[in-house]
């Protein structure tokens, strides 16, 4: 690392926790989009690198805080797509998904090379539930904690922005879950994520987890708290909003709610709900609603995944009045650019 880069790194390190504190105190909700990675896992939704860049540019225009740009260790195509975004996507933070494997972190570093330090990061994940520990990883709780600490520490020496999420968090024992988060933050994580990987929580259950994390992760003030919900029960948006009301800082979602199985929390639904009920939530979200319609339609066209007629926000019937003309949408279609 040359002298200039060393000075930049040291200055950024000293400002890191100041920035986190600012975000937490501001009360703003940050939307993190994972259409290009988690959304693409939907069967048939494969995107070419240039198509990913096009969607990333629209997401940047919409105002998302960060983009889950891909999983570099999984394929050369993901590396190529991320490389095409470097220097082109300037406002959102570009992040790359990694297992708790040092080689994955190295692959992310190569893919994101050239992106400014404050605009690149990695998102590490590790299975923590009994099912994952026993049948997927064959590791004890102690071994899982050691793995988290070692890999997050390794990543934090290469990236200023390091997120950690326990895979299958919603089926992990709450006390062990909090130990995992505490260890990750201690090792340098700047964001901790709570993923409902199998999408089976209800809003009250999701809130209980958030309260548990807030009460039993002593170093939580050093990291942002993100949530990531799958839609297997049709509750991903409701769960996201419930956690926002409880103090979550970041919501991870996808355009049109695409994703594996029943999909993810839909970015456009979370954004519009927050804007319409800003007083209720007491939180602001920096999203240009007028960009949501074009974004939704473009993602549908490029992925080949049609938008249901009944889909909130982007569906054809969303703004169609009933025959009497009295029952109409709560807001005009032009608000979201339709």
UniProtKB/TrEMBL annotation:
Keywords: Acyltransferase, Amino-acid biosynthesis, Branched-chain amino acid biosynthesis, Leucine biosynthesis, Manganese, Transferase. InterPro entries: 2-IPM_HCS-like, AIPM/Hcit_synth_CS, Aldolase_TIM, PYR_CT. This is 2-isopropylmalate synthase. Pathway: Amino-acid biosynthesis; L-leucine biosynthesis; L-leucine from 3-methyl-2-oxobutanoate: step 1/4. Belongs to the alpha-IPM synthase/homocitrate synthase family. LeuA type 1 subfamily. Its EC number is 2.3.3.13. Residues 29-293 form the Pyruvate carboxyltransferase domain. GO terms for biological process: L-leucine biosynthetic process. One of its GO terms (molecular function) is 2-isopropylmalate synthase activity. CDD domains: DRE_TIM_IPMS (cd07940). It is an enzyme of class 2 (transferase). SUPFAM superfamilies: Aldolase.
């Amino acid at each position: 690392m040359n002298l200039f880069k060393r000075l930049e790194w040291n200055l950024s390190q000293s400002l890191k926790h100041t920035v986190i504190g600012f975000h937490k105190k501001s009360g703003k909700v940050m939307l993190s989009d994972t259409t290009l990675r988690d959304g693409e896992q939907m069967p048939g939704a494969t995107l070419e690198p240039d198509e990913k860049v096009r969607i990333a540019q629209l997401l940047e225009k919409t105002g998302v805080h960060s983009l889950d740009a891909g999983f570099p260790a999984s394929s050369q195509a993901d590396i190529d797509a991320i490389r095409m975004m470097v220097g082109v996507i300037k406002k959102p933070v570009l992040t790359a998904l990694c297992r708790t494997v040092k080689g994955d972190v190295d692959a992310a570093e190569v893919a994101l090379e050239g992106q400014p330090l404050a605009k690149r990061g990695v998102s590490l994940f590790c299975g923590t539930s009994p099912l994952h520990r026993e049948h997927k990883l064959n590791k004890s709780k102690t071994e899982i904690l050691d793995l988290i600490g070692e890999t997050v520490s390794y990543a934090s020496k290469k990236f200023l922005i390091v997120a950690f999420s326990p895979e299958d968090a919603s089926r992990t024992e709450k006390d062990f879950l909090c130990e995992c988060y505490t260890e990750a933050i201690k090792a340098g994580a700047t964001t901790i994520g709570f993923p409902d990987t199998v999408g089976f929580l209800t809003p009250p259950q999701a809130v209980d987890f958030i309260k548990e994390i807030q009460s039993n992760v002593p170093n939580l003030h050093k990291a942002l708290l993100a949530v990531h919900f799958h839609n297997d029960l049709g509750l991903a948006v409701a769960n996201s909003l419930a956690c926002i009301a409880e103090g979550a800082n970041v919501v991870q979602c996808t355009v049109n709610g695409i994703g594996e199985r029943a999909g993810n929390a839909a970015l456009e639904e979370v954004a519009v709900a927050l804007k319409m009920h800003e007083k209720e939530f007491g939180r602001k979200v920096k999203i240009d609603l007028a960009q949501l319609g074009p974004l939704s339609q473009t993602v549908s066209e490029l992925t080949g995944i049609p938008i249901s007629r009944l889909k909130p926000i982007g569906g054809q019937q969303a703004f169609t009045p009933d025959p009497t003309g009295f029952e109409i949408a709560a807001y005009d279609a032009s608000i979201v650019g339709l």
